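Hi everyone, sorry if this is the wrong subforum. Our group has a chain we'd like a structural model of before ordering constructs, and none of us has done structure prediction before. Sequence below.
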Amino acid sequence: MKRINFKDYNQGQAELFPQRLDDFIPDAAPVRLVSQIVDDLDISEIIDGYKAGGCTGYHPKMLLKVLFFSYLSNIYSCRKMESALQENIQFMWLSGKQFPKHSCINDFRSKRLKKHINRLFTQVVSMLVDLGYVSLDVQYIDGTKIESQSNRYTFVWRKSVERYKANLEKKIADILDQIEQGIADDKKNQELSPAPINSTELKKKIKELNQKNKEADSQKKNF
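Answer:
Right subforum, don't worry. Here is the predicted structure as tokens:
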């Protein structure tokens, strides 16, 4: 019998010294840039809007980082942000492995940030464009503009881009409109939660599938 060597694979293996999420984020990753920018932003006006005492809430800088990085990743729906925080390692790192619900993100965006979000976001995007980190382009797939989303802009991270600001304010305004549409879609589309996994039924179906494949392989060998 031939011996085949594979790398050890065990999803449930415990680690004596677990790696930090920070170890998986490249030094030049855009998410680090967003984190640094928000860390240095003066958001005292936003913090002043909070009342002393009461239950502890999520830190506004963490939520602001999540919002800005979501927008710069072309994610405008709070529900999609919630999913990204649970599934995307960059978002997990950004939030410090905290998992605010979409309702919490939306409350922060629509109440705490209502007077500040457009101004702050426009300033941050303008700075990123000026520094050559990001550009705003019309959405394309395989070189063809998406007709159903004509003139919709997306953020493109680049190591260096042309440092021009032609129509930048108009482009940012279009993005802010898309964000408002994302908020409206959140209210309109109540997504269903995934059904619990039925392991017994799943094993049964996989067993049937394996049997069918075995029979198909057997028939091929007989020809």
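For your construct planning: The first strand starts at residue 134 and ends at 138. The chain has a mean pLDDT of 79.
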